[in-house]
Amino acid sequence: MPTAGTSSSGTFSCATATQRTLKDLRTKRKGQPVFVVGHVLERKGQEAAFELFNVRLAVVKFADGALLGYDPGELLLPTEIDEKGVAYFEIRQCRKCDHQFPLTAEELTSEPEPSECPDCRLS
């Protein structure tokens, strides 16, 4: 049976230093905004909303109603969500490994803005 956890805070999550993808979240909330960097080329770079887990896949719903399954690591969290609940994504390409990663709200306002993903910054 597919399941989706609920957030005790009742709010959606934004990217943090330790939580940048849906996979990183301990509890996933239905409706969580995500940015798709996954394997379906027609959907790559689009925003969607998390629906539920089905086996090992996170099922997401796109604005046109399409439902697709992705590895939760292919779904990036928003940089911030405004008071009206609109998610904003600041996605960058790592200059070292070429992977995409979301900036946190703090990184977005920092000088200089990070140009490498967190994994490359640690190595």
Briefly, what is this?
This protein is 8% helix and 28% strand. It is mainly β.
Structural description of this entry:
There is one protein chain. By secondary structure, the protein is mostly beta strands. Helix content is 8%, strand content 28%. The strands form three sheets. The chain has a five-stranded antiparallel sheet, with no helix packed on it. A hairpin with a 4-residue loop joins β3 (57-62) and β4 (67-70). It is globular, with a radius of gyration of 14 Å. Residues 1-8 have low confidence and may be disordered.
Q: Helix and strand succession? A: EEEEEEEEEHH
**Which of globular, elongated, flat, extended, rod-shaped describes the shape?**
globular
Global mean pLDDT: 90
Number of helices: 2
Counting DSSP E segments of at least 2 residues, the number of strands comes to 9
How large is the share of residues in beta strands? 25-35%
Low-confidence stretches: 1-8
Instruction: Give the % helix.
Output: under 10%
Structural class: mainly beta
**Strand order, sheet with most strands:** 4-3-2-1-5
Amino-to-carboxy terminus distance: 40 Å
Radius of gyration: 14 Å
Biggest β-sheet: count, sense, barrel? 5 strands, antiparallel
